[in-house]
Amino acid sequence: MAETFTARRDPLLHRLPVISHFRKSMGLQRGMLVTGIVLTAAFLLTAALAPLLSPYGFAERFDTQQPPSSAHWWGTTSGGYDVLSRVIWGTQTAVMVIVVAVVLSIFLGVAVGLISGYFGGRLDQILVVVADAVYAFPTLLLAIVMSIAISHGQSSLLGGILSAGISITVVFIPQYFRVIRAETIRLKAEPFVESAQVLGASAFRIMRRHIFKNATRTLPLIFTLNASEAILTLAGLGFLGFGIEPTSAAEWGYDLNKALSDTTAGIWWTGVFPGMAIVLTVLGMTLVGESMNDLNDPRLRGRRRAGRTSQPANPAGDESARDKVTP
Amino acid sequence: MLVNVGKAQELPRLPADEKAVLSIEHLKVTFATDGGDVLAVDDVSLKVVPGEVLAIVGESGSGKTVTARTILGLLAETAISSGAVLISGRNVLSITPAQLRQIRGLEVAMVFQEPSTALNPVFTVGWQIAEGLRAHGKVSKKEARLRAIEALGKVGIPDPETRVDYYPHQFSGGQKQRVVIAAALALNAGLIVADEPTTALDVTVQAEILELLRDLRDIYGTSIVLITHNMGVVADLADRVAVMYGGKVVEEADAATIFASPQQDYTKKLLAAVPHLGRNSASAGATERAHQDRGVLVEAKHLLIEYPGRLGTPAFRAVDDVSFSISAGEVFGLVGESGSGKTTIGRAIAGLSRTTGGSLSVLGYEMLSFHERTFRPLRKDIGFVFQDPAASFNPHLSIGECVAEPILIHEQCSRSETQKRVTDLLEAVQLPRAYAERYPHELSGGERQRASLARALALNPKLLIADEPTSALDVSVQAKVLELFKEIQAEFGFAALFISHDLAVVDILADWVGVLYQGRLVEQGIGSQVMGSPQDAYTRRLIASLPVPDPGEQAKRREAHRALLHS
């Protein structure tokens, strides 16, 4: 019914969040975005191809604390695990935690935010107070409490991922809630929502058809930023010993924790590689998120100067022509 | 930063130019946008001599504001310009930022459209005027204050000694605009660039500001570049008029000539589209109220609408003891200035805001005991056209989907039938059927407002509420939309509540006109009679302060207005 009028627009590929941003970008901004995309893509590929890429399993044990060699390119840990394999397998854990955390928090946060913002009143007040209360807790503390409550601190692969994911979810819901609620309140006063009210559309229909799509524009941005924060929280949990057992999954935070005592002994390889993995992954996703943020805002978006090309206005946006004049 | 790639330096300085305060020569401004370069100003040359008011008129997108901003070197980073803008012999486009700062304030000052945003809310107006003085040389605190008081006195702010310490929010909109002009005066700028200085103001306040600007020219010999789309304002104030279209000056002549005998087709069309009070009245010759034989759709009796105040403050009474009725098939025009409560009444009838007291009956439903659930079935008989056509469409839905929305909500229709009805509706408002697939942002303002009309008419309503439907549109577009509205009203025969601040527009459409002032309905009657021989003092003032697009007639009206104020 609703799709009676299929409109012509740009091809779907060009409207996808990151790709549409890439097409709009130029100069340094494009450089940042590309770096972010490359790092994030490398992270995702590694996770997907972990069984092929890693020389050993994440739980295989060898001689302890061997320096990098041809057998163990990045050496082994004090527990006798191969560092390279642990780092590669760790990407899988990270991806799973991000998916669990972000999916859970997006659905709940968006739904609650829409309802709270649209109806307002007493319900809204209570939800805002709850969200603020959760917000006031230090993220990691809350995650620890949740982790203990869910799995008593230690657990298997699934239990570990779920507990890490859910504890991050609890922290993230208020973020989505707030963003969506603020957008909903703004949109509620927009004439097009009022015009739907005048037409007699039900509250559910207005939320679903008129507010939802307009309120969720900023979600890809929060998504990327939260994904990087989820990794940091997971690593923090693991570092503090609330993570996943080394035998059930590879986890960078746990490895960093175990590498702590090695540093004084001059064993650098156990700490540097998991640490680098965390930094690069977070950096990649933050770069994507920040670039998207800048590119979404026409005032922050860099543009090529007018008049550098002799060709007239080209509404179709000929990319090749634009690329040539990019400094 | 501006990048001046032109041949500004090569331009010969003509001796005749020495006299001009401002001389724009072959100005071109190009903007870089996502869609490629846009040439906003194309080879514009203009001159302003001391004590002259040059009006630059044109519709939105004609390049008039860009031209004005170039005079002060206020272009966005994405713009590049060529040509020359000479202010007392110095080219604004090529001088250093320090020199530009010297010129700004001392030689050119700017008056913006929205006075409430042009003033910083956290400083007193005296401080803000003194800020300009301090920027140009050392001035003692005491002297700056004295000069600020003097400037405020010049622009007619009563009791300037005390009010110099007031904050912007303590002034009304018109007074704020006076303060902005005072800041320009304090530095004794020889040229004031006024970008739509009265557009955000009510008609009665507009008349006062125009009066002030005229005094500036007559008493201090200030030159003014007036950017406006309002031909009435032009007729009232301008000595010379430059008509811009598509970045070019299409015609330039003195005000009297351009109104009396426009040469270019575009100017002729533009002038013809301007609604002129007293011409083309819908109720011309009518002696009694029409449509009284048919049922009454909306009846307000001693209607009260209040907005709750904040803690401790009393409720704000937006509508106070208003009684009127709208019969089936009748066009009721509601006029009033901002804050008069006209929009509140429209929203109350549509069930968007609640009534507080009295009685408001809409299609037999008493709005005092409003419940969304019980009112919803009636909504299909009420159409609503919003002021801003850009904001009243969901940007994620195509025009077809938007117009189909009321049909989907209220009726069970098959897909093909819905599609057919939407196509018919679009044809009724003279939009090509292919527009159903377009998105709102792909339409122009006038087209969007037509689509908005199509959506409002989708269920063949008995009552249509139009809240300032043409205020956001250009004059020529407004004329077309009004014409369409009139045709469709005659064809569909719905009753309409037409809300507007523009008396001339209401006069074109409405049989019966009500005048609101501060929440009260001060006068109602047959349109042509209210406009022709207003009875209430406020209505008289309102009509007298409306500038008409004819310099000769406007001069006479101005005198009449003055007489009215001083009587």
What does this structure look like?
The complex is a heterodimer of chains A (327) and B (567). With 327 residues, chain A is an all-alpha fold. Chain A has a single domain (15-303), classed as MetI-like (MetI-like fold). Helix content of chain A is 68%, strand content 0%. Chain A is built from 14 helices and no strands. Chain A has helices at residues 12-15, 17-24, 27-48, 50-53, 83-119, 121-136, 139-151, 157-188, 191-199, 203-215, 219-239, 252-259, 269-296, 319-325. In chain A, helix 3 (27-48) crosses helix 5 (83-119) and helix 8 packs across helix 10. The longest helix of chain A has 37 residues, at 83-119. The termini of chain A are far apart. By secondary structure, chain B is α/β, with parallel strands linked by helices. Chain B folds into two domains: 8-273, P-loop containing nucleotide triphosphate hydrolases (Rossmann fold); 330-338 and 372-545, P-loop containing nucleotide triphosphate hydrolases (Rossmann fold), CATH 3.40.50. Chain B is built from 21 helices and 20 strands. In chain B, the strands form four sheets. In chain B, strands 6-7-8-3-9-10 form a six-stranded mixed beta sheet, with helices on both faces. In chain B, strand 4 and strand 5 form a beta hairpin. In chain B, helix 8 crosses helix 20 (537-545), helix 11 crosses helix 17 and helix 15 (415-428) packs across helix 16 (445-456). Chain B is globular, with a radius of gyration of 26 Å. The N and C termini of chain B lie far apart (53 Å). The model of chain B is unreliable at 1-17 (pLDDT under 50).
